[in-house]
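Re-running the complex after MR caught last week's input typo. The corrected sequence lines follow. Everything else is unchanged.
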Amino acid sequence: MEAIPLAQPDITDLERRAVEEVLLTPTLSLGPKLPEFEALLAEAAGVRHAVAVNSGTAALHLAVRGLGIGPGDEVITTPFSFIASANAVLFEGARPVLVDIDPRTLNLDPARLEAALTSRTKAVLAVDVFGHPADWDAIEAIARPRGLAVIEDSCEAIGARYKGRRAGSFGDCGAFAFYPNKQITTGEGGALVTDSGELAALARSMRNQGRSAGGAWLAHERLGYNYRLSEINCALGVAQMHRLEDMLRRRAEVAEGYRAALSAIDEIELPYAAPDVEMSWFVYVVRLRAGFGQAQRDAVLASLRAKGIGCSNYFAPIHLQPFYRAMGWRPGDFPVTESVGERTIALPFFNALSRRQIEAVAEALAEAVAEAAASQESIPHKRAAHS
Ligand SMILES: Cc1ncc(COP(=O)(O)O)c(C=O)c1O
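Corrected-run output:
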């Protein structure tokens, strides 16, 4: 069987020409493509400003630092995410306070937020995981009256909507990311999006070694970084943004293809989308039903890989990563995250995935799941079925 990768960027002649045009000029950084890309990103988020940077992680770092979060502060966030969302808090010497997730949306569970507040809480950093927006009304209803800052990690959700509002527009600022597995890619890249002119100006300065707008090249007003995104990356991003709506539609079709092909497999649960949400499909993550464990999930991943099918365990909980454990977190701290995290299977997901490939993945998954189920006597519903 042909190999099917987990992810694959969607690059056309439009992108190739756009990059080549930049290469025919002498301006490879800080040129016209940067503001052009930023205007498209601000529009996509429905906010006034976008500050493009060279990764989603850099965007999150500028968000945390730009909002004045530092040593002694606590930031409430989720353990079920890519590691960078919690790391951004650590970069500034603040403490991530992890809160367990909603078992359906897999996002930070707002019902658990209040219990995590302390006098040191400075901000909430919630993630729109897998392209499903967090429950922003509930989060803002708790954060706003207390004067907490709110950061939206929308690195996986450009183009998603929550109650009609665009991902990236919630809280004080949002972050997008453009690694090649994302809905749009710049190779590497990210952006901070915000309505605040002050925060945008600060982020622009920190992105460029603390320089001021229009200031001398060797004058540095504050501590800054090199988080600049080159004109080559920005040109690629502009071309991708012009195709964003088409690509999101295509991703929704692929997700629907999977839903149809996988709905007969009893042992798995399919991704959930809340009724008031428009997904921006980033990945297609199914999970083995409750009662299955990590050993069976890992056996399914191994079986798929042996057939050349790309797959992954999105996400291994943040608090169980070695350096988080060294900070004191333990297995059992976040039961929902751990239970979900040991049963997830991210399947190949990209725009060019064909119906035939979806069917091949579904067939291989059904076989792998049946093998895993048969290998384990202790699955409650299987035992019941056999008795
Ligand atoms: C939720 C989340 N936050 C942050 C990031 C970091 O983005 P990047 O890999 O561009 O630094 C990612 C990307 O993988 C992500 O999925």
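None of the earlier attempt is carried over here. Residues 55-57, 60, 81-82, 84-85, 127, 153, 155-156, 177, 179, 190 surround pyridoxal-5'-phosphate (CB under 6 Å). Residues 382-387 have pLDDT under 50 and may be disordered.
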